[in-house]
Amino acid sequence: MRSRLKAALLAGAALALMAAAAPVMAGIPDVSNSFYVPQSGTVATPAEGTLATRFFRMCPNNDGGASLPNSARVKVTVRDVNNNPIANIAAADICVLFNGGTSAQGFSGTGADSVISNATWNTAPLCPDLRCVAADAPTDVNGVTYITFGGADVNTPGVYLRSGNRKWGHYDTALPVYVLGFQLSGRLTSASANGTYSLRVKSFDWTGGLTAAANQGETVTATDFNGVANGIGVNNAISYWRDFDYSGSVTATDFNTINAHVGHDCDSPNNP
Fold it and tell me: Residue 1 burial (CB < 10 Å; 0-12/13-18/19+)?
């Protein structure tokens, strides 16, 4: 009798602990159920997948035009272990994360390590210290928010509105997306599986700026321009980063695109 009573008490205690833990787990992002998706266009009828990623290119001045056009963004969906949406996560806790620079420049961390976004080495002109490209707004009742790369208003998430602090140079092969410290997987489309997409944003400033040398990054130079001009019709390891319209090859269109941004940096043509 005593053994049965003891077993029953232990079982009851275990159930009580599980019940107590459930609400805690319910508020924590689950990386299997949470994800981000590349999007562009309107929030109501967005393009996804390659129809969206073809707009993922930028000028270090974030000056619009061919830079981050069509409200280029990722849609972020955050769910818990029970697959329930988590609402009201602060925008600042949802980031595309940068280290700020390279290890050669003294930067480290879990963010992108070849994106240049610091005021340490790039001081003339002075560039923003950017580590977190934050969400446009807190997550809604569906656990959804957006990270519009060029900026957005909190009242219209997913719609581009230029921010003078959204400036960076160079590129990284995988830009990590974090929510409350949890790294999310990407989906090429909302219907795809987790892990089918890694975030990349091409840059017109695609050469230089990676070493411990002052004022070499976050500017579109003749080296960037000439590299595209000389890359027309060439297919090699860096052709992808010079193919700004994602056509599959470097063409005169890419040449014309970068030509419109030569000389642009953190304070030109727009300051900030």
Answer: exposed
